[in-house]
Design a protein that fits this description.
This protein is 19% helix and 31% strand. The protein has 3 domains: 87 residues, Pseudouridine synthase (2-Layer Sandwich), CATH 3.30.2350.10; 134 residues, Pseudouridine synthase (2-Layer Sandwich), CATH 3.30.2350.10; 62 residues, PUA domain (Archaeosine Trna-guanine Transglycosylase, Chain: A, domain 4), CATH 2.30.130. It is built from 8 helices and 17 strands.
């Protein structure tokens, strides 16, 4: 008698095991690192080094620095990445060194020399300061060709690599303060406090053109990203020296998730309200801190134990809070 064999039915796996493994790599680290980016590499390269050192599952930064530049690069780990967009609008501080009389295609020392012009022999420090003072306050600034801005869907720096130059619309920025730290006739060092979206390379280019001889950046350091003006930056070498197998010494260096959000109003919700908030609904809330004059609409949301659980938007009466960003610590 013949034996009937029933074929084994194959069950499709909708999520490949490789993807599951990739998703689970790293630790669930949450917080903000004020990294002192070294010169000579991209911001993403510095980010990836920090991410590997902390063995973090997820990381992002709040605004790129040029490869030439050093200085403060806030790195957000874990759930802090959901809040990074609220730090991108922050004011920033820079110190830069410029060379008068030489222009480059990138407006910094990494580019190819385009033109060499004589620096006025009678240019004094006082005259140089008067020129710089013209650039304080609200300005319309044209971004450099070597930048990450998109024009017609293409990054400007990619077009620049192809030898192309396209028209770039000017953007509104504000130079809050500009101080001449030193001047030697053909070189100068500046301290700049400015709004988001400001390109120091473009500022230096415009100063050089106002003098009539051109200029480019030879050194650039970001001294702060608001509101972290007075906080210490940590070098990669310092982080590596703190490394331990249990990561405890590294984790102690992280700022809390809400470290850069003190300008926002804050409310508290009950345990029941937290469940409602996580379902995407608007629970009742209790105000615990007012917003400063720069904050608009969004508020911090805490549970009854003082743990930040997300960002929300208050109702017109201020009695309820609608979720904008919900934090999940797993």
């Amino acid at each position: 008698m013949a034996t009937t064999v029933t074929p084994v039915r194959k069950i499709a796996v909708t999520t490949p095991l490789k993807k599951l493994a990739r998703r689970r790599r790293g630790r669930p680290v949450h917080g903000i690192l004020l990294l002192d980016k070294p010169s000579g590499g991209s911001s993403n390269h510095a980010l990836q080094r920090a991410k590997r050192l902390f063995d973090a599952q997820k990381a992002g930064h709040t605004g790129s620095l040029d490869p030439l530049a050093t200085g403060m690069l806030p790195v957000c780990f874990g759930e802090a990445t959901k809040l990074s967009a609220f730090l991108l609008d922050a004011d920033k501080g820079y110190e830069t060194t410029l060379q008068l009389g030489v222009t480059t295609n990138s407006a910094d020392a990494d580019g190819e020399v385009l033109e060499t012009r004589d620096v006025p022999t009678d240019l004094t420090e006082e005259q140089f300061k008067l020129v710089c003072n013209q650039f304080k306050g609200p300005l319309q600034q044209v971004p450099p060709m070597v930048s990450a801005i998109k024009i017609d869907g293409q990054r400007l720096y990619k077009l620049a690599r192809e030898g192309k130059e396209v028209e770039r619309p000017a953007r509104s920025i504000t130079i809050h303060d500009l101080q001449v730290l030193s001047f030697s006739g053909s070189t100068a060092r500046l301290a700049v406090k400015c709004s988001k979206g400001t390109y120091i390379r473009s500022l230096v280019t415009d100063i050089g053109e106002a003098i009539g001889c051109g200029a480019h950046v030879t050194a650039l350091r970001r001294t702060f990203v608001s509101p972290f003006e007075r906080l210490e930056m940590l070098t990669m070498e310092h982080l590596e020296s703190r490394f331990t197998a249990d990561f405890k010494s590294l984790d102690e260096l992280l700022l809390p998730l809400d470290a850069g959000l003190s300008h926002l109003a804050a409310v508290s919700i009950s345990e029941e309200g937290l469940a409602t908030f996580r379902r995407g609904q608007s629970p009742f809330c209790v105000p615990i801190a007012k917003a400063d004059s720069s904050a608009q609409g969004v508020c911090r949301v805490y549970d009854e134990h003082g743990v930040m659980v997300g960002l929300g938007e208050l109702s017109e009466t201020g009695e309820q809070v609608a979720p904008r960003r919900v934090l999940q610590f797993t």
